[in-house]
Amino acid sequence: MNNYHTTYTNQLIQEINATPGEYLPTLLNIVRSFRESITLKPAESSFRQGWEEAMSGEAMPVDELWTGIENDG
Fold first, then answer.
1. Could you tell me the residue range of the domain that residue 18 belongs to?
2. 24: in domain
């Protein structure tokens, strides 16, 4: 484990230890939700979700995807 990882792990442990016990379930939910929101889904489930969205009409036509986006370059 590198210093960067150790430093943040120790800080997280300190914050957890400083949290009143009755709030630990909520803290766990917050941390779990955060991790799940930043973790990439497997390609198969991403494709399946995209396919379902496309089949239900939740997708935009390709020619509209870049409408309104300015090219600053």
1. 14-39
2. yes
Residue appearing with tokens 């489930």: 45
- For the stretch 30-66, pLDDT in tens is 999 999 888 887 888 888 888 898 899 888 788 887 8
Closest CA to 31 of 42, 43, 19: 19
Model confidence at 7: pLDDT above 60? yes
The count of domains in the chain is 1
Residue 54 counted as domain residue: no
d(CA 48, CA 25): 32
Question: Is 26 a domain residue?
Answer: yes
Rounded Cα distance, 9 and 15, in Å: 10
